Amino acid sequence: MRRIYDLDKQDIVPSHLEILLWQKMPERSMSPRITRLMDDAINLFQDLAKPRALVEDFEADGFSFLYEGKGMNAPDGPVPFIAGRTDATALMAATMGDDLAVKCSELFALGKASLGYMLNVVSSAASERLGRHMCRLFLERLRSESGELKEIKVQYYCPGHCGWHISGQEKLFVALRPDEIGISIDSNWVMHPLKSISGILAAAPIEIHRFRQGFSFCPECREHKCVERLELLETE
C-alpha cells in the first residue's frame, strides 16, 4: 500500500519544554522574554507549516539491498538486525514544506535573528514530533487491519543515524519516490525542504527496538536521538 497524508499541523507543534530541550536548555530558562519568543515562533510555525507525508509498505527481506547504499555504513549498526525482525515495515518521508526555511532566512535578513533562530528550533523540534506522529499513524493502520497488536511498537530509523550512512538516502529515494510530495535530495544527500525526514517505519515488539549505546559510531554521535526516541517508545 502507498498512501499520501495531508497532516494536521497541530499534531506536530512542539511544546515549550520540547523547544527548550532541543536547545539543551533547562526548564528554568523560561524567562518571560524567552517564553514570548517561543510563542511568536510557534505562531509563525502554525501559519507556515504545510505537513505532508508519504508511506509505502516494504518487505523486510528487501532491506539489505536498500540499506547497503554506497557501502559506507558502520559495520556494527543495529538497524539491519531490527529490520530483519519486524512484523511490518514501511518506507516513509515527510515534510513541513519550504515556507519555514524561507521565513527563517527572511527574519535573519531583516535583523530579527532571535526570532529567526527560534523559528528554526521550533521547526527542528516539530520534525522530531513528525517522525513520532508517523510511527503512530502506521501503528493505527496496522491495528485497524490486524486487530489489537498490543505488543507491537513502531519506531523509525533513518539514514544519517545509528550507523546507517546518510548516502543511504539515495536508494531510499529511488524506492519511495518522495518527489510526489515535494521532497528531493541534493548531491550531498541532504533533503529539501530542510527539516524533512525519511527512513523506515519498523513495527516489532519493544525488545527488538532496545539496544545500548556501545557501537563503534556512538562516541562520534552528537545527538544521541536513539536514547530519547526509545524512552518515548517505552512510555507509549
Short synopsis of the structure:
The chain is α+β, with helices and mostly antiparallel strands and 236 residues long.
Can you describe what's shown?
By secondary structure, this protein is an alpha+beta fold. It has one domain: NADH Oxidase (3-Layer(aba) Sandwich). It is 44% helix and 16% strand. A five-stranded antiparallel β-sheet has the order 1-2-3-7-4, with helices on both faces. Strands 5-6 form a two-stranded antiparallel sheet. Strand 5 and strand 6 form a beta hairpin. Helix 2 packs across helix 6 and helix 5 runs antiparallel to helix 6.
Assembly status: single chain
Overall tally of structural domains: 1
Sketch the major β-sheet: 5 strands, antiparallel
| Percent in strands | 15-25%
Using the alpha-carbon principal axes, give the shape: globular
What portion of residues is helical? 40-55%
User: CATH class, please?
Assistant: Alpha Beta
How far the N terminus sits from the C terminus, by CA atoms, comes to 25 Å
CATH topology: NADH Oxidase
Number of strands: 7
Can you give the mean pLDDT? 92
Q: Please count the helical segments.
A: 9
Low-pLDDT sequence parts: none
What integer value in Å does the Rg equal? Answer: 18 Å
Structural class of the helices, strands and pairings?
A: alpha+beta
Main attributes of the structure:
globular, 5-stranded antiparallel beta sheet, 236 residues
Protein topology:
Layout: E1 2-6, H1 16-22, H2 32-48, E2 52-57, H3 63-68, H4 79-83, E3 88-95, H5 99-109, H6 113-146, E4 152-157, H7 169-176, E5 184-185, E6 191-192, E7 197-205, H8 206-209, H9 225-235
Antiparallel strand pairs: 1-2, 2-3, 3-7, 4-7, 5-6
Helix pairs in contact: 2-6, 5-6
